[in-house]
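Duplicate of #3305? Posting structure anyway:
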């Protein structure tokens, strides 16, 4: 007989997402809870196998009682939290983040970036043709990694890590 390693049970945390009661395992993030509830919160620097970097801030949501928007990818669920994922404030913040990023780098290879740019009505072109586009040749570090700053989303991940913009 083979022993199956068991994970310790995780308590469930009660919170609300857009007014709907949900339960999420203790220690999970708001993004985990949103995804489990079928809510599409955009992400650029988040990766399932990466430590949250909170670099892009495109995943922000509103938490009742909090002065600032919270990055869903790193904020942990707490009992009684009231979270709103689709407010005007959150949408405006996401739109500006998408505009700034897409005006300065080539986001064409970033998964879902074009979809979110359209969904949020982002207009990267409003910063003009002289927006800070990086004009550098890709740097080839080794056989596994090309450092192409034109496509770098400034996600804060280390150069050896897989990047959302690569
Ligand atoms: S995806 Fe949350 S800060 Fe980038």
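Output from current build:
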């Amino acid at each position: 007989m083979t022993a199956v390693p068991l994970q310790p049970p995780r308590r469930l945390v009660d919170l609300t997402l857009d007014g709907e009661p949900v339960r999420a395992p203790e220690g999970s993030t708001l993004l985990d809870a949103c995804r489990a509830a079928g809510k599409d919160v955009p992400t650029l620097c988040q990766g399932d196998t990466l430590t949250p970097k909170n670099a892009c801030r495109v995943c922000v949501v509103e938490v009742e009682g909090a002065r600032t928007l919270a990055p869903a990818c790193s904020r942990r669920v707490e009992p009684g939290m009231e979270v709103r994922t689709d407010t005007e404030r959150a949408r405006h913040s996401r739109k500006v983040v998408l505009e700034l990023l897409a005006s300065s780098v080539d986001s064409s290879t970033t998964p879902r970036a074009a979809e979110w740019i359209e969904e949020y009505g982002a207009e990267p072109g409003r910063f003009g043709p002289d927006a800070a586009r990086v004009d550098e040749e890709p740097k080839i570090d080794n056989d596994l990694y090309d450092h192409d700053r034109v496509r770098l989303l400034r996600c804060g991940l280390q150069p050896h890590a897989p990047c959302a913009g690569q």
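Confirmed duplicate; merging threads. Confidence is low (pLDDT under 50) at residues 158-166. The chain has three helices and seven strands.
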